[in-house]
Amino acid sequence: MFAAHAAKLTTDAVARDPALDARLRQLAIDHYDFVWRSLRRLGVTPPETDDAAQRVFLTLAQKLPSVEGGKERSFVFGIVMRVAANVRRDRATARLREVPESDATSSLSHDATAETALAHAEERATLDEILASIPEERRIAFVLFEIEELTLVEIAEMLGIPQGTVTSRVRRAREEFRAAVTRHRARNKGV
Amino acid sequence: METPDLEPLLHGEATEDERSLLQTAKRDAARPGARDEMLAALGVPVVAAPERFAVRFGSSGGSLLHGVLLAVFIGTVTGAAVMFGSSSESASEPSLPSDVRESSLRAPSPAEGSGQADDLASTPVVTPDSLPSAPAVASTAPAKAGAVTGSLPSTDTLAREISRVEAARAMALLDAYEREFSRGAFAVEVSVLRIEALAQAGKTDEARRLGARFLAEHRQGAFARRVGATLDALPGAAPPSSAERALRSPDE
To answer: What is the dihedral of CA A154, A160, A161, A167, to 10 degrees?
Structure first.
């Protein structure tokens, strides 16, 4: 498994430079939660999310010496997008469902009632399905703006594209999202 | 130059269905401890030396108290090093008597032994000897401490202070563990370590109370023997009856 090789690969790549270790640690503190959420919202469902997050930081560790100060978040998110795409592609190859049953329990609050938990799990699966139907570029802009609630400026900087492009992607993705929600509700009501 | 009329759906014109769906993603969060596990898997120390105490003690809600305890601990250890001089290795070692001692809660470090600060900053790790399931043995610490105090009477107080500060720190670590892993797999081990830390800190009443409760729930086995030995060593403790000893140790 991926994690089994992580330590050795990292040892080879980073060569245990204390300064790089410290920098990597700080980046993990600053960005791990963001990385995990982003992977999850880009279609990497538990239990794969932890593994994918580790893969992001392993890649980051290998490239850390060349990462420019102040641009780490953008760099990290670039890795997130590639890792998420790879995971989805691998899953598609394996013909797995995007929302496995295990996700239903792993993302639930422990004190939720069974009915509430089931309702949340179903809605989360629906959201995954809808997000998966939005083309990659627009999905990323949508997730960062609508769910992560970054500003258009932040998203433009992170993706390295003009703000106008971000705006148009968000608008278009929003239309697609709303249309998909409407379709989903209509289907559920048997219309 | 952000487009003024574009704001997240959740803050504006989302329908109930849209809002409900988007809200489900707001609950996305990594497992507690996932980040540290990832760092550990990558071979990166989880917490940097200067940060460790800030994280451990800061998150415990008693940062000021713990900061003071830490300062006292470092000060006393440094003082001990100065007092005993370079030949004090054998004398200073016994001044850290405990099963819940610093060395049992730290990771191997390349700089081990090179300095107190480095030792304090290492990542927690439980060594086999420090495991609660390790065989209960009569504590040799008092005898060693006695040897120290025999040559330098003033170190008795110092040793006690160090021991208590260590115990307080151990309890802070145990509190942190219980907060993070309230249903952790090491709950029993943590209970045993807490009893030992309380005993070491001189909180004999609380140690007795928790120890009695523990022994009521775990009447025999290695943990029970270890807790029993801790309680028996408390000042003013009645010697255990043969029945108690037999119950804890089936071999007897």
So the answer is: -20
Residues B224 and B230: their CA atoms lie apart, in Å, by 10
ipTM over 0.90: no
Point out the residue among A7, A152, A178 whose CB comes nearest to the CB of B2.
A152
Of the partner residues A58, A163, A167, the one whose CB lies closest to the CB of residue B42: A58
pLDDT digits (tens, 9 = 90+) for B90-144: 333 333 333 433 333 343 343 333 344 444 444 444 455 555 455 555 444 444 4
pLDDT score of B172: 80
Strand extents, DSSP E, chain B? none
**Chain B closest CA to A94's CA: distance in Å?**
25
Largest CA distance in chain A: 62
**Are the beta carbons of A55 and B42 closer than 8 angstroms?**
no
Q: Which residues of A touch B46 (CB under 8 A)?
A: 25
Domains of chain A (ranges; CATH) run 1-96 (1.10.1740), 134-191 (1.10.10.10)
| A167·B39 Cβ contact <8 A | no
What is the CA angle A106-A109-A112, rounded to 5?
A: 120
Mutate one of A127, A128, A129 to test the B interface: name it (highest B CB count within 10 A): A127
Which of B2, B5, B15, B24 is the best substitution to test chain A (most A C-beta atoms within 10 A)? B24
Dist CA A124 CA B22 (whole Å): 9
